[in-house]
Amino acid sequence: MNLDYTENQRLISQMAKDFAEKYIRPFVMKWDEEQEFPVDLFHKMGEYGLMGVLVPEQYGGAGMSYFEYITAIEEIAKVCGSIGLSMAAHNSLCTGHILAFGNEEQKQKYLSKLATGEWIGAWALTEANTGSDSGNMRTAAIEDGDYWIINGSKNFITHGKSSNVAVVLARNTNSEDKRSSSSFIIEKGTPGFTHGRKENKLGMRASETCELLFDNVRVHKSQLMGNAGEGFKQAMKVLDGGRISIAALSLGIAQGAFEAALAYSKERQQFNQPIGHFQGISFKLADMATEIHAARLLTFKAADMKIKGQKMTREAAMAKLYASEVAVKTANEAVQIFGGYGYTKDFPVEKYYRDAKLCTIGEGTSEIQKIVIAKSL
Ligand SMILES: Cc1cc2nc3c(=O)[nH]c(=O)nc-3n(C[C@H](O)[C@H](O)[C@H](O)COP(=O)(O)OP(=O)(O)OC[C@H]3O[C@@H](n4cnc5c(N)ncnc54)[C@H](O)[C@@H]3O)c2cc1C
Q1: Taking residues 329-342, what's their average pLDDT?
Q2: I want to staple 323 with a disulfide (CB 3.0 to 4.6 A). Which of 41, 91, 153, 247 is the partner?
Q3: Taking the CB of residue 36, how many other CB atoms lie within 10 A of it?
Q4: How far is the CA of 18 from the centre of ligand 1 (A)?
Q5: Is 39 exposed, middle or buried (0-12, 13-18, 19+ CB in 10 A)?
Q6: Phi, psi for 292 (deg, rounded to 5)
Q7: Atom of ligand 1 nearest to the CA of 364
Q8: What distance in angstroms lies between residue 130's CA and the mean position of ligand 1's atoms?
Q9: Among 91, 125, 361, which is best to mutate for testing ligand 1, by the most ligand atoms less than 8 A from CB?
Q10: What is the C-alpha separation between 250 and 320, in angstroms, rounded?
Q11: Considering only CA atoms, which of 122, 96, 125 is closest in space to residue 111?
């Protein structure tokens, strides 16, 4: 595996960095405090290719590989975890599901809108009573002639309110197999398809998280992806790729927190010297740098396997598990290095600390990643 940045990675990394400095950094705390999901920003990200990084050019995307994709997410997340999370959910989950399992007609119709950022996508698997045990979902899809009738609700859905289209997983209640489920592309405005409560969250506050409600929603069979009964298997494959992007999101948050703490350790004087001269502080920084480096190696290894078309369920889970725990630990130490100032909203580290925690929960908790890894041993 060659870890040197490719020309494309260098370009996308610089572009994402410049984009984040210009269009994200000035508004980070406003969006966070007002819990505002900045829809227009995502349309603009589309103009820069950030909403369809993996989508082939023939469907209006940037046509890049997983290396460029995770590089871009890391750069955006360094400045704002929320925007990084929404970018990851849009690219890997909704768009990624259609790219992997949609038919040609579905790809033509939806990818061009999603990849250009004209439309925002959501991906709905989790329900109020089935999170980790998502295969046990209760939202029901019953076949009725050329249509499927969908009833139920989905919980914690990123862009649940503002998305134009959602990929929705629902259980086939008329199948003999109790865990049989299918995936559907459902457009906003379809009668009976609405959103419910928006969550008020600890972190990732500029990334909208909302309930989706389905009340006798009639979905034409042309909106089914693949065959009926394949939904959960498709979802697990989509999550393999999604977990690499959450590892990249974690890396960005960890790197952002580390850089802030390193700079502060050189500026802040106590006992007539910079606090970074104290071994107690410099050892924290050494641990942070080492763990971020290790997380990056795991993340790029999983991405490399994904690019080569190798099975990487275990490696994606390892990267997500480790990188997300490193993000939480790094952000925690960054607050410690900032002391009392780190506990205020005048400095960026309290936000990294709040945002990082989502990374150990979304797209499968750390415990679920350990189950995935253990099963493969
Ligand atoms: C901000 C945010 C955005 C999200 N976006 C989306 C989205 O876009 N689409 C979507 O479908 N979902 C989304 N989710 C849902 C997310 O994937 C779930 O929250 C997550 O999978 C955990 O499910 P749960 O919250 O129901 O926790 P639970 O499954 O109830 O878990 C509670 C605790 O029990 C532990 N646990 C559960 N089972 C086991 C076990 N077998 N062994 C050991 N421990 C176990 C868990 O690790 C956890 O610590 C989002 C969540 C958040 C918070």
Answers
A1: 98
A2: 247
A3: 14
A4: 33
A5: middle
A6: -65, -40
A7: 21
A8: 8
A9: 361
A10: 8
A11: 96
Determine whether 208 is an active site residue. Answer: no
Cα dihedral sign, 31-35-41-45: positive
Q: Are strands 165-172 and 147-158 parallel, antiparallel or unpaired?
A: unpaired
Element (H, E) at 142: strand 140-144
Place of tokens 């966070």: 32
> Is the entire prediction scored with pTM above 0.70?
yes
pLDDT tens-place string over residues 128-139? 999 999 999 999
Q: 3-state SS string over 236-258?
A: HHHHHHHHHHHHHHHHHHHHHHH
Helix, strand, coil share of the chain (percent; to 5): 55, 15, 25
What is the model's pLDDT at position 356?
Answer: 98
| Pocket residues: Cβ below 6 A from ligand 1 | 89, 123-126, 131-132, 156-158, 204, 209, 358, 361-365, 367-368, 371
Helix (H, G, I), strand (E, B) or coil at 117: coil
pLDDT digits (tens, 9 = 90+) for 45-79: 999 999 999 999 999 999 999 999 999 999 999 99
Rg of the chain's alpha carbons, rounded to an integer? 21
| pLDDT at position 256 over 90 | yes
- Among 87, 76, 79, CA closest to 54: 87
32 within 8 A of 79, measured Cβ to Cβ: no
Q: How far is CA 313 from CA 8, 11, 298, in A?
A: 26, 29, 13
Q: Is there a contact between 229 and 176 (Cβ–Cβ < 8 Å)?
A: no
- Average pLDDT taken over every residue of the chain: 97
Using CA positions, which residue lies closest to atom 38 of ligand 1? 132
For residue 342, give Cα distances in angstroms to 79, 283, 339: 16, 18, 5
Ligand 1 centre to CA of 132 (Å) is: 5
Contact 320, 247 (CB under 8 A): yes
Which DSSP string corresponds to 250-312? HHHHHHHHHHHHHHHHHH-EETTEEGGGSHHHHHHHHHHHHHHHHHHHHHHHHHHHHHTT---
